[in-house]
Amino acid sequence: GILRCMNTTTSPLSALSAELTTAVATAAASVAYVDAHPRRDASGIAWDEHHVVTVEHAIDREDDIELRLEGGATARATLIGRDPSTDVALLRTEAHLRPAPRADLARLAVGNLVLGIGRDEDGLTGASFGIVSSLDGPWRTWRGGDVDRFVRPDLSAFPAFSGGPLVDVTGAVVGMNTWGLSRRMALTLPVTTLERVVSELASGGRIRRGYLGVALQTVRLPEALRAAYGLTQRTGAIVVDAAPGGPAEHAGISLGDVIVGLGDVRIEDSEDLAHALGGAVVGTARTLRVIRGREARDVTVTLAERPDHDDATR
């Protein structure tokens, strides 16, 4: 009688297993393997019928990118735009894709069950099961990109999972997993950030960010100096290197100058400057407030576009 009951009644674990299997199948229909780099495996997410979102760090060429889709089909794609600061690349293909359903992030909470989905070079689907281990507010990547929300899953993220989706138990996309935003762990770019960046890339092919060309370290400002110039902050950002031919060098910024302001924005460290430059318009003239020696002065600098390859300077 007991064995008969177990066979005819679905256990909670069996029900969960069936739901997760369905979620993987739902998400996998919108996941491609992206062959665009000789050494880096990546997956991609079908954003609409003809566009795929993937990780920028796995794009080595702009044309003749091969996609391997659900069911073994292959397609060619070209690069539409890329943003290294958020590690997002947008591809276009003539193949007809099945767009991925998107989750409502307002309902996302620490402890929610999630799945990482990827596709390998043979076209096979891979999945990893875990939970949302950490959530926080907006943050800035080490390359200066703005991300709407910090999302860290606790699951095994294999190399080909980079560029693939993190999905909820219904198979709806929470965000895109990537190894390109942290040197220590895989993180998830939330779907809200993807929507914003994809929209910008689709309209212009790249996101132009203001650039000074300086490497900085945080230094303490002496009390006497703060009092002399009415500075309310306790620290500033000292210039320890300047990119040759960069905007700062052209404006006469020297090693040892301490930046304490950009326009109306107070600068206490390199992150403050990166944030101020994130919304700055390339080609505009801005006023840098610097301390040179023990004297404050204003320096006018014309912002350039941040080079994709320059990660060391702001």
Task: Jot down its keywords.
6-stranded antiparallel beta sheet; alpha+beta; 314 residues; 6 helices; 19% helix; 6-stranded antiparallel β-barrel; disordered N terminus
What order do the helices and strands come in, and which of them pair?
Elements: H1 2-8, H2 12-28, E1 31-35, E2 42-46, E3 51-54, E4 65-68, E5 74-83, E6 88-93, E7 113-119, E8 125-136, E9 139-140, E10 146-147, E11 150-154, E12 165-167, E13 173-178, E14 187-190, H3 191-204, E15 210-211, E16 214-220, H4 223-229, E17 235-242, H5 247-251, E18 258-262, E19 265-266, H6 270-278, E20 285-292, E21 295-302, E22 304-305
Antiparallel strand pairs: 1-2, 1-4, 2-3, 3-6, 4-5, 5-6, 7-8, 7-12, 8-11, 9-10, 12-13, 13-14, 15-22, 16-17, 17-18, 18-19, 18-20, 20-21
Summarize it.
The chain has 314 residues and is an alpha+beta fold. It contains 6 helices and 22 strands. The strands form 5 sheets. Strands 1-2-3-6-5-4 form a 6-stranded antiparallel barrel. Strands 11-8-7-12-13-14 form a 6-stranded antiparallel beta sheet.
Written overview of the protein:
With 314 residues, the protein is of the alpha+beta class. It contains 6 helices and 22 strands. It has helices spanning 2-8, 12-28, 191-204, 223-229, 247-251, 270-278, and strands spanning 31-35, 42-46, 51-54, 65-68, 74-83, 88-93, 113-119, 125-136, 139-140, 146-147, 150-154, 165-167, 173-178, 187-190, 210-211, 214-220, 235-242, 258-262, 265-266, 285-292, 295-302, 304-305. Strands 1-2-3-6-5-4 form a 6-stranded antiparallel β-barrel. A hairpin with a 5-residue loop joins strand 9 (139-140) and strand 10. It starts with a helix and ends in a 9-residue tail after the last strand. Residues 1-6 have low confidence and may be disordered.
